[in-house]
Amino acid sequence: MIRKFFLNVSKEEQKKRFLSRLDEPRKNWKFSTADIAERARWNDYMNAYEEMIQHTATPHAPWYVVPADKKWYTRLVVSAAVIRALEDLNLRYPTVDASQRKTLKAARIALEHEGRH
Questions:
Q1: Taking Cα atoms as reference points, which of 42, 43, 20 lies closest to residue 31?
Q2: In sequence order, what are the residues at sequence separation of 6 or more whose Cβ sits closer than 8 angstroms to the Cβ of residue 10?
Q3: Nearest Cα to 33, choosing from 46, 23, 43, 18?
Q4: Mean pLDDT of the region 70-99
Q5: Containing H/E element for 104?
Q6: Per-residue pLDDT for 117 more than 70?
Q7: What does the alpha-carbon distance between residue 92 and residue 94 come to, in Å, rounded to a whole number?
Q8: Residue 115 scores a pLDDT above 90
């Protein structure tokens, strides 16, 4: 099971987050000056992401393009997709047949009598 998530942050939200990283000393380490130059190529990046997603999405490994301006919403959408994928696996505990139950019963007896010698 493969699920791929593209967390799509808007240009406005990215700007807000960059400013926060500059304003808050404990977040300064997250900021890279290279990001400012790269913002000038925003449309190029968006086109490249769209093309990449279109060419790499498959039925067994789909992309989920998730709005990521609100972190709580992003986490909710990703969690729901993961839960659905796990539910689709239809997992069940293994069954124990009569022969295995007999072996388990013998193991229980051995454990219960351990150290009684």
A1: 20
A2: 69
A3: 18
A4: 96
A5: helix 98-113
A6: no
A7: 6
A8: no
Both tokens of 97, joined, read 């047949």
Sequence-distant contacts of 68-74: CB under 8 A, at least 24 apart? 68/7, 68/8, 68/9, 68/13, 69/9, 69/10, 69/12, 69/13, 74/7
* DSSP state string for 6-59: EEE--HHHHHHHHHHHHH-GGGGGG--THHHHHHTTHHHHHHHHHHHHHHH-BT
pLDDT in tens, 13-41: 999 999 999 999 999 999 999 999 999 99
Q: What are phi and psi of 66, to 5 degrees?
A: -115, 125
pTM here is 0.73
| Residue type (1 letter), 5 | F
